[in-house]
Amino acid sequence: MSGVDPARLDDQQLMKELENIHRTRHDTLLYGSNDALRTHNLRMAQLEGEYLRRNPRRFVSPARTRDGARVRAAAASAGRTPVGKWGPGAGHGGA
Question: What is the Cα–Cα distance from 91 to 95, expressed in whole angstroms?
Fold first, then answer.
């Protein structure tokens, strides 16, 4: 595996590595070799695991839970657009 052990990165370095790996994910999936994708998967899991280890009580948006998805689905089926991050103007199906 290449790269610095995530546990040795400070918080700022860890976030920079996470931003970079997420930015390159799509191209790796679409155009990378199987080996490249496997390496990308492993590195991403290491970095995300370290982030979660350091931030076990991170903020979790209610809109990103199953209950939040149910609220959005119910609002959509009733012809209403939910308010908030995924509501109007958010670029995710809002009016």
Answer: 9
Average pLDDT over residues 23-51: 97
Q: Which of 15, 14, 18 is nearest to 40 (CA)?
A: 18
**What average pLDDT is seen over the chain?**
87
Judged against a pLDDT cut of 60, whether residue 81 lies above it is answered with: yes
* Contacts for 71 with CB less than 8 Å, ≥ 6 apart: 63, 82
